[in-house]
Design brief:
- A hairpin with a 3-residue loop joins strand 2 and strand 3.
- With 222 residues, the chain is α/β, with parallel strands linked by helices.
- The chain is built from six helices and six strands; from the N terminus they run βαββαβαβαβαα.
- It is globular, with a radius of gyration of 17 Å.
- The longest helix is centred in the middle third of the chain and has 16 residues.
- Strands 2-3-1-4-5-6 form a six-stranded mixed sheet, sandwiched between helices.
């Protein structure tokens, strides 16, 4: 992604940015396009991401540690409990929160529930309205008005992560909210996960892509 480098910064900034939202809203697709490399696996099936996936984006002026998270749900069994604990840890660690919703005329009830919980943490929140390529932009106005009215959030960025539409507006908004800090990682490091983890995730992605009810959805790869 060719983002606009914030030029007004005098001191280096660095921090953790957690990407939150319901399943299948486009969090992993967003992370992959921002990093310019496929780090987090994607699937049309919900709850593909099970762990916090760390993706590091560095420049001369800043370093952003993106945390891709499992989709936020109300857990019903132990695997989902584990995934939601990863989400909670990402909220705790975040310096900035990207809350992603799907473009529509209004927020889904679960979006409202999770946004209430996140806003109570009193951390900077940027709302990304994703998949704008699927709806007329005029239909987004009621949703945007609802978010401003009900939550007092006015940093709303309509995007299409898949088509990289609007992503250039996201980076400057993130960087302006990061604390002043030296870099946490070498500038050429992309993630802290070992190669074996990344390869296992890619294999799991292909299992989800090619199989349905033939195998348990809780399949893992070792």
């Amino acid at each position: 992604m060719n983002e606009k480098e914030p030029s007004q910064l005098n001191k280096h900034r660095a921090g953790y940015v957690s990407i939150l939202g319901r399943p299948n809203v486009g969090k992993s697709t967003f992370l992959n396009h921002v990093l310019g490399v496929k780090l987090s696996i994607t699937s049309t099936k919900p709850q593909t991401t099970r762990h916090r996936i760390l993706g590091i984006h560095s420049s001369d002026d800043y370093q952003i540690m993106f945390l891709d998270t499992p989709g936020m749900i109300r857990p019903k069994y132990l695997l989902q409990d584990f995934m939601m604990s990863a989400v909670q840890a990402a909220i705790d660690d975040a310096d900035v929160i990207l809350f992603m919703v799907q473009a529509s005329e209004r927020l889904w009830p679960d979006d409202e529930l999770y946004l209430d919980r996140i806003k109570a943490r009193d951390k900077p929140i940027i709302v990304l309205i994703n998949k704008i390529d699927l709806v007329k932009k005029s239909r987004l106005l009621p949703m945007m008005e609802q978010i401003v009215r009900d939550y007092g959030l006015d940093v709303l960025i309509p995007i299409s992560a898949l088509h990289e539409d609007g992503l250039e507006r996201v980076m400057p908004e993130i960087v302006s909210r990061l604390p002043e800090s030296p870099a946490f990682y070498p500038h050429d490091q992309l993630t802290e996960h070992p190669e074996r983890f990344i390869v296992a995730e890619m294999i799991r992605e292909q299992i989800f892509e090619h199989y349905g009810e033939e195998i348990p959805y809780s399949t893992t790869v070792s």
